[in-house]
Design goal:
- By secondary structure, the chain is of the alpha/beta class.
- The chain folds into two domains: 213 residues, Purple Acid Phosphatase, chain A, domain 2 (4-Layer Sandwich); 77 residues, no CATH class.
- Helices cover 40% and strands 17% of the residues.
- The protein has 13 helices and ten strands.
- Helix 11 packs parallel to helix 13.
- It binds fe (ii) ion (2 copies).
- The site of one fe (ii) ion has 6 residues, from helix 4.
Length: 297
């Protein structure tokens, strides 16, 4: 039997986001996409940052002519390259990974990410509005913990009945009276304890818009190797080490480390990571960790 897409011309749109300079994860999604018969691909921001190969990710998006929105990590990289950061970010260990990632981008990459819009609508499914975080900010996020009221307010801020977002690296589909909010999850750095590369495909069916959250396995050893061979691991201090742990466990380590360092009054440096790891339990819910942290402070 022929695949369904050859029987009926069904409009299909893929949205992928939070690639974060992870080329092996991105390549796995590109290979998966090749068999999906989609009419449009949109990129939900955070192509760069939190990973070693931002430039290669930008090049692949540019080569395909895919439209993208600007994530907060595009803003961070632009801030570094355009001199809008505090002086100490230019030399302290805490910011060494960000400096390395910003320097890795070409002038052409910077030009492309600077021109990205905060939001865009699909040309194939006009019901679909894509943002990175929320309609009002690319630095606040929606996830499984978001209340129905919060999601309804965010949905009311756009004209379309389908709000598609990313940023929290946690996929979700939430149906509301006024429409639907979908977080497509993350290609390059998932936080839902599933290390596979994740994205979403939207399709108009006779019963309305359907969404499929997809998970694509890839070889984590490849991205670990790139951390090493690119020099990012050696240059990136505590941040690069913690990002490796995030890839492996598909849950946050970096922000918990920063919060722990504040509570323990420890410098945010690689020499304190073992102490942090003795305190942090990656398998416990983050809320439990923050509870234990409050007792510490
Ligand atoms: Fe992100
Ligand atoms: Fe983000």
């Amino acid at each position: 039997m022929l695949p369904r897409r050859y029987n009926l011309p069904v409009p299909r749109v893929a949205v992928l986001a939070d690639i974060h300079g992870n080329v092996p994860a991105f390549e796995a999604v590109l290979a998966d996409l090749a068999g999906q018969g989609v009419d449009e691909v949109l990129v939900g921001g955070d192509l760069v940052g939190r990973g070693p190969e931002g430039s290669a990710v930008v090049a692949r998006v540019r080569a395909r002519g895919w439209r993208a929105v600007k994530g907060n990590h595009e803003d961070y990289m632009l801030d570094f390259r355009q001199g809008r950061v505090p002086d100490d970010w230019l030399f302290t260990e805490e910011w060494s990974a960000a400096r390395w990632m910003a320097a890795e981008l070409s002038a052409g990459d910077i030009e492309l990410i600077a021109a990205l819009p905060p939001s865009l609508a699909s040309e194939v499914l006009p019901e679909l509005r894509l943002v990175h975080g929320t309609p009002r900010s690319n630095n606040e996020g929606l996830g499984p913990w978001s209340s129905e009221r919060e999601l309804s307010e965010q949905l009311a801020a756009v004209a379309e009945p389908l709000l598609v977002c990313a940023h929290t690296h946690r996929p979700m589909v939430r149906d509301l009276a006024a429409g639907r909010v979908v977080n497509v999850g993350s290609v390059g750095l998932p936080f839902n304890r599933d290390p596979r590369a994740q994205y979403a495909i939207f399709e108009r069916t006779a019963r309305g818009l359907a969404v499929e959250l997809r998970q694509v396995p890839y070889d984590l050893a490849e991205i670990f190797q790139i951390y090493d061979s690119s020099g990012f691991l050696a240059a990136g201090g505590a941040t690069a080490r913690l990002l490796l742990l995030e890839l492996e466990h598909a849950t946050p380590f970096l922000v918990p480390f920063l919060k722990w360092a504040d509570a323990a009054q420890a410098p945010r440096e690689i020499g304190r990571i073992d102490e942090f790891l003795a305190f942090f339990r990656p398998d416990e819910p983050l809320s439990h960790f923050y509870g234990r942290l409050r007792e510490l402070g």
